[in-house]
Amino acid sequence: MLGGRYAVQRRLEQLPRAERWSAHDLTLERDVVVVCFGEDEGHAAATLDAARRAAGLDNHRLVRVLDVGRSEGISFFVEEAIPEAHTLAQVLEQGGLPAEEARRIAGESATGLEAARARGLHHLRLTPHSVLRASDGTIKVRGVATAAAMASEEDVPSAEAARLDAVGVVAITYAALTSRWPLPGAVPGLEQAPHVVGGVPAPSEIAAGVPGDLDALCRLTLNDDQGPLTPGDFAAQIAPWAPTQVVGLGGSAPREADDGLARTVALPVAGLERSGLRPDRGDSQASPSTAAAGAAAGAGAPYDQATQVVPAPGGAPGPGHPTPGTAQPGEEHAEGGAGAGAAATAAAVGTAIGAAGHAAGHAAGAAAHRVGSFAKAAADKAAERRAAREAAERRAEQHRISLDEAFVDGADPLDPPLPMLPPETAEAPTRDQSKIVLAIMAAFLVIVTVFGFWGASRIGSKSNFGLGTNTPRNTVTVTAPTATVAPSSGTSSPSSSGSAGEPFAILSATGFDPEGDNAERNSEAPRVFDGKPDTFWSSEGYASANLGGLKKGVGVRVDLGQVHKISEVDLVLPDVSDVTVFVGQDRTRDNTTVIGTSQGKKGEISLKADKPVDGQYVFVWFTSVSKVSDGRFRATLAEVTVR
Question: Which of 193, 356, 620, 640 could form a disulfide with 180 if both were Cys (CB 3.0 to 4.6 A apart)?
Answer without folding.
Answer: 193
